[in-house]
Amino acid sequence: MRLAAPPPDNEPAGHLNVFLGALRNNGQVCGTDWPIVMDNGCCVATVLAPAADSLDERYHGTYVRKCIAEARQVGITFACSPIGPACDCADACACANPSAYVLFTTFLTLESPVRCMDCFGPVPLYPFTARPNADFHDVISWQSDYQSCDHLQMNCTVLERAATRQMSVIDSALAAAGRACCARLSELAGKPFYYYLYRDKGRSAAREAQRRCPACDGPWHLPATLHGCFDLRCDNCRLLSNLAFNLRRPNDDSR
After folding, report:
1. Which of 12, 60, 68, 196 sits most deeply, having the most CB atoms within 10 A of its CB?
2. Per-residue CA distances from 66 to 20, 58, 128, 208, 229 (Å)
3. Do the domain assignments include residue 46?
């Protein structure tokens, strides 16, 4: 992404950061790792986009358009050019009409937190936009909070138990925020949105086999693992989970 050279008394990097933040909240760029460098009098940032056409003007939301208009008033324009596909990201969903979606991320995930339930490929957020003056700040905030918790529980040093609880328990603040995101996205998409409850440790395989949906207490064991991640699914409550990782088979590398 390239920012044209502005008048000398402006701060192009500041405008570019604001613009990138608006794009992120609209689901048009992923993450916050966008180093900015000077190149031939222009500020240039390299960003990860969900798809090759994600930065097209047709996907711009209200706040993105506002940033563009404000930058133009001080002589700044933005230009975008693709570099190539990312080597360490999952392939984007190519399904014409997904049956459902799942809100899913990890501390390693760079892509959109929305996944297709059919192919499990990442799905950009911006196609779900249906309300004026709205973006996806709530979904992006949830993803950032979830990844922070996942970092803590993977590091196993500070706040491991508290972070794991946020990811695992249905009445945690993190789960409540995520399920609220699912409800809004489901309304926009007209499709079911599932929420994933992480399961780290269990006491025994027998107890894991007896686990029931934490929301309705109904049965939710799947006959086979779905997408290498999910062993449990409640269609009534739109919840997904896994059998405890400490009790999985040795060759199970889904995490």
Report:
1. 196
2. 12, 14, 20, 51, 40
3. yes
